[in-house]
Amino acid sequence: MLILADSSPVRQVVVSARGDAFRWIDVVAPNRATLAALTEEFGLPESAAEDCLDAHQLPKVERCGDRVFIVLRLHVGPTNHTAASAYELTQSLAVLAGPHIVIAIARGGQWDRTR
Q1: pLDDT digit string (tens) for 2-34?
Q2: 23, 35, 45, 78: most buried, per Cβ within 10 A?
Q3: Cα distance between residue 84 and residue 28, in whole Å
Q4: 75, 93 in Cβ contact below 8 A?
Q5: CATH level 2 (architecture), domain 11-106
């Protein structure tokens, strides 16, 4: 296994096996152009790309051929006692997983993957 960094400022190849047999790609705070590139390069469904831009996307699981698209909501900060909704306490994380690839798309800025 190799730890690699992609030249793009918005994504990072976290793990890659020899011969590109497996790739795990993190994408943080993507815009429409970045999601369009992911759609073209990796076959991210267009509906999934739209879901990645929606700050209020509810958790869900969808099958997309031989891949699965999952949206999770993760607690990402200290508890805010004045928060009026789950959206103020959580951030969406979308995951597209299939044979030989995992793409994790975090809508917001910093999030701690070690929790």
Answers
A1: 334 444 544 555 565 666 677 888 888 888 888
A2: 35
A3: 25
A4: no
A5: 2-Layer Sandwich (3.30)
DSSP-derived secondary structure letter, 107 = S
Q: Is 46 exposed, middle or buried (0-12, 13-18, 19+ CB in 10 A)?
A: exposed
**Which amino acid appears at position 23 of this protein?**
R
**Sign of the torsion formed by the C-alpha atoms of 112, 107, 83 and 58:** negative
Q: What residue type is 73 in one-letter code?
A: R
Place of tokens 């044979």: 99
List, in order, residues 6 or more apart from 88 with CB less than 8 Å away. 80
Residue type, 44: L
